[in-house]
From TrEMBL:
GO terms for molecular function: ATP binding; ATP hydrolysis activity. Its EC number is 3.6.3.30. InterPro entries: AAA+_ATPase (IPR003593), ABC_transporter-like_ATP-bd (IPR003439), ABC_transporter-like_CS (IPR017871), P-loop_NTPase (IPR027417). This is Fe(3+)-transporting ATPase. It comes from the Bacteria. The lineage of its organism: Bacteria, Bacillati, Cyanobacteriota, Cyanophyceae, Nostocales. The keyword Hydrolase applies. The keyword Protein transport does not apply. Pfam families: ABC_tran (PF00005). SUPFAM superfamilies: P-loop containing nucleoside triphosphate hydrolases. Keywords: ATP-binding, Hydrolase, Nucleotide-binding. Residues 2-229 form the ABC transporter domain. It comes from Fischerella thermalis JSC-11.
Amino acid sequence: MLYIEKLNKSFKDRQVLQDLTLYVAPGEIYGLLGANGAGKTTTINIICNLLQADSGIVKVNHQLVSEATKKIIGIAPQENLLYRGLSCEENVKFFAKIYGLNRIERQKQVKATLKAVNLLDRAKSPVETLSGGMQRRLNIAVALVHQPKLVILDEPTTGLDIEARYEIWELIRQLKNQGITILLTTHFLDEAERLCNKIGILKNGQILAEGSLEELRTCIPAKEILVVQTSEAEKAIARAIACGFTPRRYGSDLSFWLPEHLELKEIIARFDGIHIDSISRQPIRLEHIYLELTQKC
Ligand SMILES: Nc1ncnc2c1ncn2[C@@H]1O[C@H](COP(=O)(O)OP(=O)(O)OP(=O)(O)O)[C@@H](O)[C@H]1O
C-alpha cells in the first residue's frame, strides 16, 4: 500500500532523510518511531505530496505520489486540523467538500464518519465545547470522510488521558478490521506494542530496524531482563558480568540481560554476598529494543 525507496531530503545543508526505505502492506498498522527531529513529519509531508523529496520513490497503492494520490490518503496531523467555532458535523462536511464528495455522498459519509468515531450524538456541538479526546477523534474523522485506503495518524494520543487513549486505540483497531492501512507515529512505545503489526525505528532519517515486535526482539540476545535494586551496584555489575549477564541502565534502573531462563533461587544465588534490596524480572519490551538501537548508532 505504501512503498518508499531511497528517499532523501535536505533542508539547506542539513540532510533530514537519508535513503529512507520502508514498505507498508495493505491492512497493516505500521508504527514509525523516532525521537523528536528524526524525520517522521518530513516523511509524512512527502507521502502527502505537501513537500517535494530531493530523490527517491514514494508510491501509494502502486501510484507515484501526486495530487491524485491525495484522494486515497487521509491524514490526521499532530495539531488538530479543526475549525473551533464550527460544529463536528460542519467540520467533517467542510473536509468532505474539499475532497470532492457530492451532496449525497457527503450526507452519508459525514454521518458514517461521526458514528465511526463515536461522536454522532455531538454532531451539532461546536468543537470548542468538546474534550481533548473528542477533538482528537474528530481530527481522525476528518481524515476518514473520503474513505481513504491509507490513513496517517501523527501522534494521535499525545496529550490525552488514559481513557481517551483507550478510545483512540479502539478506533484504530476498528479501522484495521475494516482493512484500512495505517501509518502511525507515536512517542508511546506501549502504544506501538499494542497496535502495530510492524514497527520501524527511525534515527537521523534512516530506518535502523524494522519488523514485528517478535522480529525486533532478536535485536537483544536475551530471554528476559532483570531489574536489581542494590546499594552495591559496582559489585553487582562485576558479579553479573562474570555470570554472563549483560548490564544496562534504563533510566535509573540497574538491569541485566539474562541469556537464559533461570529460576529465581538460581538468580539470587549468583548475587550471593552482595546486598540486594529487590530483584524483579521483566520481559523484553519495545522500549529496551528502541533504546538499544537508537543509543548504539
Ligand atoms: N521546513 C523546514 N526547514 C528547515 N528544517 C526543517 C523543516 N522541516 C523540518 N526541518 C528539520 O528537519 C528535522 C526533522 O524534522 P521532523 O519534523 O520531520 O521530525 P519528527 O521526527 O517529525 O519530530 P517530532 O517527533 O518532533 O515531530 C528537524 O531537525 C527539523 O528541524
